[in-house]
Amino acid sequence: MDILFKNVKILKDIEKGEVLEGELAVSDRRISYVGKKAPSIPYDRVIEGKGNLLLPGFKNGHSHSAMVFARSASDDLPLSSWLKDKIFPLEDHLKEGDVYALTKVAILEYLTSGIVASADMYYFPEEIARAGEEMGFRFLLVATPKGEGEDLDEFASLCRNRNSKLDSLTYFVPGFHAEYTASEKMLINLSKITHELKLPTWAHNSETKEEVEACKRRHHGLTPTEYMESLGLFDYGGGGYHCVYFSPHDIEIFQKHGCHIVSCPGSNAKLASGIAPLLEFTKANINLSLGTDGPGSNNALDMFYEMRLASVLQKIKEGRADAFDGLLALKAATIGGAKALGLHDCLTLDVGQKADLILCDLKRPSMQPLNDLARNLVYSGSKDIVSLTMINGKILYEEGKFYVGEKVEDIYQKAQEITSRLYQEAENRL
Description:
Layout: E1 3-13, E2 18-27, E3 30-35, E4 45-48, E5 53-56, E6 58-63, H1 79-91, H2 98-112, E7 115-120, H3 125-135, E8 138-143, H4 152-163, E9 170-176, H5 184-197, E10 201-205, H6 209-218, H7 224-230, E11 238-242, H8 248-257, E12 260-263, H9 265-270, H10 278-283, E13 288-290, H11 303-318, H12 326-340, E14 357-360, H13 373-379, E15 386-391, E16 394-398, E17 401-402, H14 408-429
Parallel strand pairs: 1-4, 1-5, 6-7, 7-8, 8-9, 9-10, 10-11, 11-12, 12-13
Antiparallel strand pairs: 1-2, 2-3, 5-14, 14-15, 15-16, 16-17
Helix pairs in contact: 2-3, 2-14, 4-5, 11-12, 12-13
């Protein structure tokens, strides 16, 4: 489908915040023109931009999408209590089909926030993939072998078969929840898979002080990062989620292996886990992405919220108002996220890149008057300015309406039925 956006402002250079006024054309799922005046061809649709802003869609570096069932039902607890006392008992009752239906609610929220892709780690990853493919949403799926890794052949086949599909919206990579929930046998087996497939490995890493200190006690003084490296888990790259308590040596290890860091400032702040040293990561030239984490711990799936927190919390941490420029947060939410997810053709609004973009309404009060558009997205932007979200050249959300092949009311109803059942079964078990 050929689509033309005319009379728009185009955020061309995110790192400098530079904006071009003109037109952008989309053809066959990719950007075909960016400039002052697009070629005069018979477009399927011409969208009058009214001077509003086009920018690359946000990439969510880390989430557990299906955890919408836990939204605002397990609040105001530290991470360990939140997991063990609230989340794990509910997850014990998840069954086939639940994750598929629950993920759809998260996708709707992603679209309203201008998020066009997400790295997801959760149970039943093929159900997440199915939900994404049916609704037109991109996922990087971080999958984990079962038990001690007894299904290695099956797991390797899953990755190979899924990743061999051309133009697929989903891609599978190996990973595991965290050092404290994984046995060494499983991690050794997982390392074998990463080497066989030559794929990156992802995991939660150094989210709390307690996690780091407990790992040191278990593994002869090694931090989670040092322990994972000793098993060869970073030999083909990958990265870590959270990375709040990283030592200088941890940073060196990520530098050495070209690993990515996904910071989740909203979740880390709500769980009182701490503030990650984002300024140190950027100084070390480690690619930085932002993630919402799951809706059970955040609770919003809102990249505007994450960008603002990422920037202002660094200013508090460093004690300097000029620390961590807002453009660094915008870069992490777009380019940094694309690199972390392996979406190297979804980085910018340039010809040949995939048409994964959003249109933001500059007529909203929070955007007026027009000064520094890029930084204002970070410091004043919110979900209500997203008027259109396009993925792979297809408009999935526009002016408050969803175009995902299914009635929104049906998605909500099914998710509510599953959520009510999970809580009832967990209560009956007590």
